[in-house]
Amino acid sequence: MSTDERHKRTEGTRLRCSWSVTAGLILGDPMPEFTRTWSITSEAYEKDPACFAKFRDEALEYAKALTDPGLNWVHVDWIYI
Q1: Which pLDDT score is estimated for 69?
Q2: How far, CA to CA in Å, does 23 sit from each of 12, 17, 39, 79?
């Protein structure tokens, strides 16, 4: 699994699904320091379908943690191919 501070993805080449969480002060103007993504490849999903729930839960928990009066908006995109 590849991971860095802002992007977590499983090994493989065929994207299966992805979550992207953005947030900011001015609506529609995301602040890069709050942007995070979680991506699952088909290869990883076929080996371990539980990775879907794990990444989903991590993305949603991160989004909930950002619903703080210090920010004005949080947006979650989910793509399933």
Answers
A1: 78
A2: 28, 20, 18, 18
Terminal Cα-to-Cα distance of the chain (whole angstroms): 20
- Name, in order, each residue with C-beta under 8 angstroms of 64's C-beta and a sequence gap of 6 or more: none
Contact 6, 18 (CB under 8 A): no
Contacts of 5-8 with C-beta under 8 Å, sequence gap 24+, read: 6/35, 6/36, 6/37, 7/36, 7/37, 7/38, 7/39, 8/36, 8/37, 8/38, 8/39, 8/55, 8/58
pLDDT digits 0-9 by tens, 11-70 = 999 999 999 999 999 998 999 999 999 999 999 999 999 999 999 999 999 999 999 778
Boundaries of every domain in the chain:
2-80
**Closest Cα to residue 20, out of 80, 81, 79?**
79
